[in-house]
Each structure stands twice: as C-alpha cells, then as structure tokens.
Amino acid sequence: MELLINYFIKNILWIFVIIIILGKFFYPKIIGKAGEYWVKKELKKLPKDNYKILNDVMLYSNGLYHQIDHIVISKYGIFVIETKKYNGYISGNEYDKKWIQNNKYYINNPIHQNYGHVKCLEEILNLSIDKFIPIICIPSPVKLRITSKNYVLRLYELNNTILSYKNIVIENQDHIYNKLNSLNIMDKKKRKEHIKNTKEIIKNNNQDSINKCPKCGSKLVYRKSKYGVFIGCSNYPKCKYKKNK
C-alpha cells in the first residue's frame, strides 16, 4: 500500500498534465453536447400531442449531408433549431459571413448554417420555405449583440417562441415526422466522416480569417508608433483595431 501511495505521489504531476490535455482536447465536444442536452430537455416540455421532436438528425440532400440538432414538427410549422454554446461576447448580424467573439476571433455565422438545414428539409419534404421557422438557440450566458430578423434565442425563450405560433400551416405532421425519422442516417461511419469533413472546412475558414480585422474584415498589417511595432488594421484611421503580436 505504501509503495502504491509513493508511486502515485511521484507521478501525480504527469497524471495532472494528462488530465489537462484530455480535458482541452474533449472540451469543445463536451460543451457542445451539454448545450444540445439542455435544449433537448427544454423541448420535452412542449405538449406531446401537438409537437413531435427529433434530435440529432442527419439527412442527405443534393449531394450533401446535413446534421440538424433539433427539429420540432407541428401543425403550426416546422422549427429547425441549431444549438450553439458560446462564451464571452458575440457580435454581428444575420448577413455577416462571420460573427466576432470577444472582439478578437471570427466564428461562422450559425444563421447561414441553419439556412442550409432549412433548404435541405424544403427539398426532402417538398414544402415551401415559409413552413419552416429557423432558430438559433444559445443556452450559455454569453453576451449577445446580434442584429437579426431570424430568431437568435436564449434557452428560456425557446418554448415560448415556439408556442407563440398559432396559425395552422401543416396538416400532415405525423407523416412528416415518420418520413424524417426513417431518413435519419444512423450509420456511425457516415456520421464520423461528416464530422471530420465539417471540422476541416471550419479549420480552413478560420485560417483564411487569421489575417483579417475582426471589426471590419480588412487586412491586418504591422504598424509603427512611438511605443513600437504593433499589428493593426490596414483600414486605419477609419478602423482603429489593433492587437498584440
């Protein structure tokens, strides 16, 4: 027993380092799944007679795979929900290709991503686009400054927004639910391949954004001042963004 304790004490630093590395590696996935879990739990509170719910749906349309976090099917419309668990401060509008996080980093605009999901469902179900309500749900306490006619909601706003729709626009919600459920791709290999391809696209997009100003999108360049060299926006003086080297 004493030998075991001594071994543990001698190796505790390495154990701690390994835990930190594993935590950093799996953190984005854990956070993402936690956000989807809370949204899923909230959607379960909707009346089951009028609202059919599908979670983590993968569909194939026009040569592309689409992984949709949540679909709520009702006679009042089909709600297409993308969950994003952000931290810090997010700014942008619905037309921007990228949003800005903490005034430093670009992140993909999830409204554009969700629009792709809506178009996929429009094609598969042969329904007009006005039957779909796209929603971005953010369950984390991030500070938002988003200008959008589309719904960008907190978790506590989600169900009230869905329940606010009262006009009947769909009469075959059970058929739609069954069709999407049958088309949901459950093959683990295809799902892993889709996730891998998505990560590669995000990585390439982020690489393209490294040398762009997060405020105006202009090129970042080295500039000089009486205090030394710094990285600033080439659109100066209209844009006065700068960052540390």
Instruction: Please state roughly what percent of the residues sit in beta strands, choosing from under 5%, 5-15%, 15-25%, 25-35%, 35-45% or over 45%.
Output: 25-35%
Termini Cα gap: 51 Å
Describe the strand arrangement of the main beta sheet, using strand numbers: 1-2-3-7-9
Q: What's the gyration radius in Å?
A: 22 Å
Shape: elongated
Helix share bin: 40-55%
| Number of separate domains | 2
Tell me the structural class.
alpha/beta
Number of strands: 12
Biggest β-sheet, characterized?
5 strands, mixed
Q: SSE order in H/E notation? A: HEEEEEEHEEEHHHEEE
Number of distinct helices: 5
**Low-pLDDT sequence parts:** 22-27
Mean pLDDT: 81
Brief account:
By secondary structure, this protein is α/β, with parallel strands linked by helices.
Give the topology:
Blueprint (H helix, E strand, L loop, with lengths): L1 H42 L7 E11 L2 E11 L2 E7 L5 E5 L4 E4 L3 E4 L1 H16 L6 E7 L4 E5 L3 E4 H9 L9 H11 L4 H22 L10 E6 L2 E6 L8 E2 L2
Parallel strand pairs: 3-7, 4-8, 7-9
Antiparallel strand pairs: 1-2, 2-3, 4-5, 5-6, 10-11, 11-12
